[in-house]
Amino acid sequence: MEATSPIVDRSAALQERNRNVRFVLLAILVANWVVAVAKLVFGLLAHSASVTADGLHSFIDGGSNVLGLVAMGVASQPADADHPYGHGKFEALASLGIGAMIGVGMLELGRMALDSLVHDKHPTVTVTMAAVMVFTLVINLVVTRVERHYGEKYKSALLLADAKHTLSDVFVSLAVLVSIGLVALGFPRADGLIALGVMVFVAWVAYGIVRQAVGILSDTARLDPLQVSQHTLAVSGVRSCRDVRSRGMEESVYVDLKIEVDPQLTTAQAHEVADQVEETLHGAYPQVVDVVVHVEPSRPR
């Protein structure tokens, strides 16, 4: 019976994971655009800045899903000569793009809110509009929970980032419902004021997503060097461990480190120790896809 390589197993698992992430994104795309169309239609008909802005925000949600699907198509490609570490960072680039799209939506929210306040526009509030907002709020809550669940399950930075984006829609919808109530009670300027408040919240969401994506793209350390050293030193034959480095995405981490062994060991014996270190770290950290061990002879202390 032929033994299956652990590297092949991990590659197949990664391919399956990327297919699942793309399926989730496609389902979320449909839900987001249903919500966006409903909000935009009723917001424009009622001349409500906050509802229309909320619709634009939902439309951007759908656009970010399209961006994510394209990025995942690239990220799922196996490593090649030009990208020996794979294409996983394209997923982080998509997350960065989502943050940028939120920023664009934030500017639009601010423009519409100020226009509403300066020109003292009075939106028309109806029971149907309120019902549509409640309906879209429920959809957004379901979408957020589903997307966060699968983001954690597949350790996908893209799904988690998009879940945060969709969660921002939940708070936006709540704020818009409050503004609808205040307008109905005789406070028309609440429409513009609530839209301004939403803009600040969306800006905070964008900052969090961009910070996460930048952390991945700038090779922020993924593992605690001290813990990695402790696991390594537990391997028989390792006398010291230093220069531990890690990088990559949450679900695909690359590690390299230096170990010192008995200088009397043969090359084959030293490589066996290195292989044991690799196996130990793969067992301790399932997210690790590659370990590079530099073997050196121990020096007199």
TrEMBL record:
Domain Cation efflux protein transmembrane stretches: 25-217
GO cellular component: plasma membrane
Molecular function, one GO term: cadmium ion transmembrane transporter activity
Record-linked InterPro entries: Cation_efflux, Cation_efflux_CTD, Cation_efflux_CTD_sf, Cation_efflux_TM, Cation_efflux_TMD_sf, CDF_Transporter
Places the protein is found: Membrane
Keywords: Membrane, Transmembrane, Transmembrane helix, Transport
GO biological process annotation, one example: intracellular zinc ion homeostasis
Keyword Repeat attributed: no
Major subcellular location class: membrane
Transmembrane segments annotated in the record for this chain: 21-46, 58-76, 88-107, 127-146, 167-187, 193-210
Positions of the Cation efflux protein cytoplasmic domain: 228-297
Keyword Kinase (UniProt): no
Topology in the lipid bilayer: Multi-pass membrane protein
Family of the protein in this entry: Belongs to the cation diffusion facilitator (CDF) transporter (TC 2.A.4) family.
PANTHER family: MITOCHONDRIAL METAL TRANSPORTER 1-RELATED (PTHR43840:SF15)
Name of the protein: Cation transporter
Organism of provenance: Corallococcus llansteffanensis
